[in-house]
Design a protein that fits this description.
- The structure is a single chain.
- The protein is of the alpha+beta class and 632 residues long.
- The chain contains 20 helices and 20 strands.
- Strands 1, 2, 3, 4, 5, 6 and 20 form a seven-stranded mixed β-sheet that branches. Strands 8, 9, 10, 11, 12, 13 and 14 form a seven-stranded antiparallel β-sheet that branches.
- The longest helix has 25 residues.
- It starts with a helix and ends in a 5-residue tail after the last helix.
């Protein structure tokens, strides 16, 4: 027998022994076999075998690791950094996006509340936050934290459905750690992606190639907080405010700044006070070509660092209280808002969020606005609406394809638009706590996370344990205010495509008139984003229409709307007009009974009616494509 073959058999034997040890309570009937990695000699000790492995000491991962440890299982928390905190510690994001209920009650209780009470405010000192998280970790006897451990790849069973361990680089060596349940708390769902879990990128799930902008946090000294906040007190901008530790505003002034680099855009200031009197400022947006490429991230970081002193000089001249400001530095890492959105057993939608949906398997609550930052230079961010209270179902944590994995954080199974709310860290920590409890429960009961997702009695036991650990899962019944409007279902369709926004006050303008240009724009965008008509094809249709119709701000008439839609059907006699055109649409079955009723006797088209007309038309085209076998 050759030495190479003998060594390979040794690796395989070690793998089988390890896997037998860690599967005293089997997660599967078929016991998976370790696929050995021949380029690295593994000499594992017993200490390298854990019940739960959590990859990523982001705040969400810390919450997951602590809750699993409190549930009585042995946990290993791994992270590439020296300290826990991730986005807080290294992205230096120090202002919390809080979630309160209709009575002012905190919705994200449990471990997040423990953290929140110790940092004492919605803005915090980043070094203090890292110490608080470290102390929370150290209190748990069942929890081991391994810093400076960079994720390399998952160790898979031979069937490719179970992750039996994580390969990391630590002390310049590659090493594998083994566990029964894996929790992916990396910002970009790196473990899930490497294991083959399907995902979408950025806004691709609703037809956009772009992703929300990244931010480089600025660290500035010499700011006179009293003068600065007094200036905000007299601001006429609607999105302005401050308290003892945080302030926001000066959007109009900052929008006038002209960046040196075209990848940079500057918005209003979001400022958090530090213990030494310095401030951290979130205002610089950076647009990357590839947010998952380390080289692109490094280049973007360097671009932002070069822009930072220029931006500070501008603020010294334009912002009260900044006259003596100076740049201390920038965050060592970018604040990345959006990359992957994994596909799970359920995907939270924007209509779940704004519809205040309560799921039977809820494991966290939220109320943060659906805040989608700019996706390209020159574009503004959009607030799509503000929920009262919504819930996140456990199924959003359970990815497709892999049986013993849970995913937490902004890359969990949320649509891109729903993530505009669910991505914020307080919600993420509540979700992380649920993942830890669920992982421990699965180990005790011999279940996979996916089996747990479809057994309501077991879910209820997880919910009880979460409540015992301080989580808040009250069931609310708050129908969305606009839900009684006849056009509500049509509004939901356009919201799902990012084409209807209500702002912070949920103003949908369904009964207000719409003009020709917005109507045509809605048709084009809805057709393209829903995948019914390609961009180049719909432009062929509408370019001659736009040339022949007077594009004005005058309200859209019923006849104009039907004539524009007729161009998509391609079979309406040219001379048909007025009541005959309406009757033709009805006879062809192109309008639902609801829309026919709303159009009857109407001359002008409201926004709600426009949504309904466009939806009916596109739905008819989609059905025709299906009948012809053309739909993808």
């Amino acid at each position: 027998m050759s030495p190479r073959l003998l060594l390979g058999l040794i690796y395989l034997s070690l793998g089988l022994i390890i896997f037998g040890l860690i599967n005293d309570i089997s997660l599967k009937r078929e016991k998976p076999v370790l696929s050995p990695s021949p380029e690295v000699i593994l000499l594992p000790s017993f200490q390298e075998i854990f019940d739960v492995l959590v990859m990523g000491a982001e705040p969400e991962g810390v919450a997951a690791a602590i809750s699993a440890a409190r549930s009585g299982v042995r946990v290993l928390l791994l992270d590439p950094h020296e300290k826990p905190g991730g986005l807080f510690t290294y992205g230096m994001l120090n202002v919390l996006d809080m979630n309160f209920g209709p009575r002012g009650e905190l919705l994200t209780k449990g471990i997040f509340e423990e953290f929140f009470r110790q940092i004492k405010g919605e803005a915090f000192d980043v070094e203090h936050a890292a110490r608080v998280l470290t102390d929370l970790i150290k209190r748990e006897s069942n929890l081991t934290f391994l810093p400076l451990a960079t994720f390399m790849r998952p160790e898979m069973d031979v069937l490719g459905k179970t992750i039996i361990g994580l390969r990391v680089k630590h002390d310049s060596l590659e090493k594998s750690f083994f566990g029964k349940i894996i929790i992916d708390a990396t910002q970009d769902a790196d473990v899930a992606a490497a294991a083959g879990v399907p995902y979408t990128l950025g806004g691709s799930d609703y037809g956009l190639k772009e992703k929300m902008a990244a931010t480089l946090i600025l660290h500035i000294g010499g700011v006179n907080w009293q003068v600065f906040t007094q200036g905000l007190r007299h601001s006429r901008e609607p999105t302005t405010g401050f308290n003892k530790v945080t302030a926001w505003g000066y959007g109009e002034v900052m929008h006038q700044y002209r960046p040196k680099h075209p990848q940079i855009y500057v918005r209003g200031l979001n400022v958090g006070l530090q213990h030494d009197g310095s401030v951290l400022i979130n205002c610089m947006l950076i647009f990357l070509p590839d947010y998952l490429d380390p080289a692109a991230r490094l280049k973007a970081l360097q671009i932002g660092q070069a822009e930072a002193p220029l931006l500070v000089e501008y603020m010294k001249k334009r912002i009260p209280g900044f006259e003596r400001a100076y740049l201390i530095g920038t965050a060592p890492e970018l604040y990345i808002r959006e990359t992957r959105h994994i596909m799970g057993e359920y995907r939270l939608t924007i209509n779940d969020v704004l519809g205040n949906k309560m799921f039977a398997d809820r494991i966290a609550l939220g109320s943060y606005p659906v805040d989608v930052q700019a996706t390209a230079p020159g574009k503004y961010g959009v607030v799509y609406g503000k929920p009262a209270v919504y819930s996140i179902p456990y199924r959003c944590l359970v990815p497709l394809k892999i049986d013993n994995l849970l995913v937490v954080g902004r890359s969990a199974s949320y649509t891109s638009l729903a993530a505009g709310s669910a991505r914020v860290v307080p919600i993420g920590m509540a979700v992380g706590q649920a993942a830890g409890v669920a992982a421990a429960y699965c180990i005790r009961k011999g279940l996979t996370p996916r089996q747990l997702a479809y057994n309501l009695a077991d879910i209820q036991q997880v919910q009880k344990e979460l409540i015992r650990q301080g989580a808040y899962l009250e069931e609310y019944n708050i129908p969305e205010a606009i839900s009684t409007h006849w056009a509500y279902e049509y509004l939901k369709f356009f919201r799902s495509l990012g084409l209807a926004a209500g702002g912070y006050h949920n103003r949908w303008h369904l009964d207000e008139p719409i003009s020709v240009k917005p109507f045509i724009h809605l048709i084009e965008m809805a057709a393209v984003r829903s995948g019914i008509i390609e961009q180049k094809e719909i432009r062929k249709v509408f370019e001659p229409i736009e040339a022949s119709i007077s594009i004005s701000s005058a309200p859209l008439s019923r006849e104009q709307a039907l004539r524009i839609l007729a161009s998509l059907h391609k079979e309406v006699p040219e001379k048909t007009s007025g009541e005959d055109l309406f009757r033709y649409f009805c006879e062809k079955g192109w309008l639902s009974p609801t829309v026919q009723k709303q159009l009857q006797g109407k001359n002008l088209v409201s926004r709600g009616l426009a949504y309904a007309l466009i939806y009916d038309t596109l739905n008819k085209i989609r059905n025709q494509q299906i009948s012809r076998g053309e739909a993808g």
